[in-house]
Amino acid sequence: MKALVWIYVALILVFTLYGGLWGDMAHQGFAYNFGRALFWPVILFPSIGKAIGAVVLLAVIGWLTFFRKA
Questions:
Q1: Alpha-carbon distance 6 to 18, whole Å?
Q2: What are the residue ranges spanned by the domains of the chain?
Q3: At 56, is the pLDDT very low, low, confident or very high (cuts 50, 70, 90)?
Q4: What is the torsional sign of CA 48, 44, 6, 57?
Q5: For residue 40, what pLDDT is reported?
């Protein structure tokens, strides 16, 4: 599990450097490219972003349904 985290961190750094030096958003700052790199799977595979959005939406609806005080 620890190795997977380090692989993900390494991919974040690679994606940040690529985006900051040669990518479409090279004119943006380092922090912008780092923020995009944190969620690189969503950028590379847009369908994952839609799935994550659906899970977040269901979580919010569940929270409002079960934990809202009447």
A1: 18
A2: 1-38, 45-70
A3: very high
A4: negative
A5: 87
End-to-end CA distance of the chain: 42
- Write a three-state SS string for the chain: CHHHHHHHHHHHHHHHHHHHHCCCCCCCCHHHHHHHHHCHHHHHCHHHHHHHHHHHHHHHHHHHHHHCCC
34: Cα separation from own chain's centroid? 10
To the question of pTM greater than 0.70 for the whole model, the response is no
- Please name the amino acid found at residue 57: L
* Alpha-carbon gap, residue 30 to 28, rounded angstroms: 7
Rounded CA gap, 16 and 26, in Å? 10
